[in-house]
């Protein structure tokens, strides 16, 4: 049976007892509405660690859009059943008051530099500050040996890497590959909000990234992103927010597609009212 905790103290007591027994702890933080992408992280943790803790917490401080927060899918009973069948040992599902007992104001300030100024950082004010705030709090609660996150949130992984440095944490960050639907759409909890027509068109996001990957040396950076953006915007329900080719380690802009190395393409697009993100390593 999966153990479910809503309270920090009870969870910590359980985890400490596990550590005393010599068990290693893997941790998968999520916002719920779980899908196979999340389960791939659970599986990676189960392979590497003795005990896997999954948290489900829709963190209000990382949303810059009230409607997105309000409409974020919440299906805790289904999630619990899925985690149970995946063999996850612990579910932590705290309230906002439990995570932020003295209010949601940030306690720490970070200078993450350029990596939070572009793409998601530019489009979603305060997003990464909210992510860092909640992940720090959750890491201080769980104190895992390993932390499992998805490449799906590419910049988030970079930010958490820096956060772990700030915290001088011993926790190891393990980044897992993007799990996709058969038509290429990156799995996401927000996909549940797509209508049938929107869902049918949504695969264009990953198709446009793959097109860039396949034609990277054939066009200029400007043409690559302009063409991919057009591919998306031609669809009735789709609208590009950004598509950018950047250095995969620094996120500096790529200038010359003929010679560039270590390139990632990062994108966000609206499909109907739902904002989706995706990325792909190009070279
Ligand atoms: P979320 O519930 O969206 O906050 O995501 C929780 C974790 O699951 C994050 O580390 C995500 O990067 C990861 N994740 C979300 N979607 C996918 C996916 N399609 N493939 C792999 N990991 C994912």
Summarize the structure.
This protein has helices at residues 8-20, 36-48, 66-71, 76-86, 96-99, 120-123, 127-142, 154-166, 196-202, 204-215, 221-233; strands at residues 3-5, 25-30, 51-56, 90-92, 146-150, 172-176, 238-247, 263-271, 274-281. The chain is of the alpha/beta class and 283 residues long.
H/I helix tally: 11
**Poorly predicted tracts of residues:** none
Q: End-to-end distance, in Å?
A: 44 Å
Run of helices and strands: EHEHEHHEHHHEHEHHHEEE
Multimeric state: single chain
The main β sheet shows up as:
6 strands, parallel
Strand portion, in percent? 15-25%
- Overall radius of gyration: 19 Å
| Mean pLDDT over all positions | 98
Give the helix proportion (percent range). 25-40%
Strand order, main sheet: write it out.
1-4-3-2-5-6
Task: List the main descriptive attributes of the protein structure presented here.
binds adenosine monophosphate, about 20% strand, about 280 residues, alpha/beta, 11 helices, three-stranded antiparallel β-sheet, six-stranded parallel β-sheet
């Amino acid at each position: 049976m999966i153990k479910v905790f809503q309270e920090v103290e009870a969870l910590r007591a359980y985890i400490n007892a596990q550590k005393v027994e010599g068990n290693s702890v893997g941790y998968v933080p999520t916002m719920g509405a779980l899908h196979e992408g999340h389960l791939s992280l659970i599986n990676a943790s189960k392979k590497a660690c003795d005990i896997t803790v999954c948290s489900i917490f829709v963190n209000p401080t990382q949303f810059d859009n009230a409607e997105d927060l309000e409409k974020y899918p919440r299906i805790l009973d289904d999630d619990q059943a899925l985690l149970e069948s995946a063999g996850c040992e612990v579910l932590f599902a705290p309230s906002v008051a439990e995570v932020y007992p003295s209010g949601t104001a940030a306690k720490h300030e970070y200078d993450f530099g350029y990596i939070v100024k572009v793409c998601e950082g530019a489009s979603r004010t305060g997003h990464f500050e909210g992510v860092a705030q909640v992940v720090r709090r959750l890491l201080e609660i769980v104190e895992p040996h390993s932390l499992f996150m998805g490449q799906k949130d590419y910049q988030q992984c970079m930010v958490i890497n820096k956060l772990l440095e700030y915290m001088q944490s011993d926790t190891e960050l393990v980044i897992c590959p993007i799990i996709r639907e058969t038509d290429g759409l990156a799995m996401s909890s927000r996909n549940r909000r797509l209508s049938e027509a929107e869902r049918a068109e949504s695969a264009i996001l990953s198709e446009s990234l793959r097109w860039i990957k396949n034609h990277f040396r054939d066009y200029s950076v400007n043409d690559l992103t302009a063409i991919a953006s057009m591919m998306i915007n031609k669809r009735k329900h789709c609208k590009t927010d950004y598509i950018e080719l950047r250095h995969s380690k620094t996120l500096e802009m790529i200038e010359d597609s003929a010679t560039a190395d270590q390139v990632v393409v990062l994108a966000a697009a609206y499909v109907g009212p739902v904002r989706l993100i995706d990325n792909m390593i190009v070279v």
